[in-house]
């Protein structure tokens, strides 16, 4: 009888220690989950803030102001417009000239 009682006491102590370990692990995992959820909320808030800031940075008024101040660009007016005309490259022009000169000598 004494042996059975000793075995049962050891089984109860072992199961109690196992239960304490499982509860500790459960609390640790729950705390980690709670921290992860808080981080997710923080990241979602920061993402929303960054999206708003991105939209503010891309406004046409800001882009125009930066172009004027930093790149020293200005609005186009007919007074400062330069028109560029296309002329054939010199190599193609000399080939055309040689070809026409060769046809006239025949």
TrEMBL record:
GO terms for biological process: cell division. The keyword Ribonucleoprotein does not apply. It is found in: Cell inner membrane; Cell membrane. InterPro entries: Cell_div_FtsL (IPR011922). Keywords: Cell cycle, Cell division, Cell inner membrane, Cell membrane, Membrane, Transmembrane, Transmembrane helix. It is a single-pass type II membrane protein. It comes from the Bacteria. Its main location: membrane. NCBIfam families: ftsL_broad (TIGR02209). Essential cell division protein. May link together the upstream cell division proteins, which are predominantly cytoplasmic, with the downstream cell division proteins, which are predominantly periplasmic. Belongs to the FtsL family. Part of a complex composed of FtsB, FtsL and FtsQ. This is Cell division protein FtsL.
């Amino acid at each position: 009888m004494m042996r059975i009682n000793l075995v049962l006491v050891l089984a109860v102590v072992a199961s109690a220690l196992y239960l304490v370990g499982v509860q500790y692990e459960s609390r640790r995992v729950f705390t980690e989950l709670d921290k992860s959820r808080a981080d997710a909320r923080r990241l979602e808030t920061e993402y929303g803030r960054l999206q708003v800031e991105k939209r503010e940075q891309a406004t046409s008024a800001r882009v125009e102001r930066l172009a004027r101040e930093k790149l020293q660009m200005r609005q186009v007016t007919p007074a400062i417009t330069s028109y560029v005309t296309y002329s054939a490259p010199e190599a193609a022009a000399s080939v055309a000239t040689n070809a026409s000169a060769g046809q006239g000598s025949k």
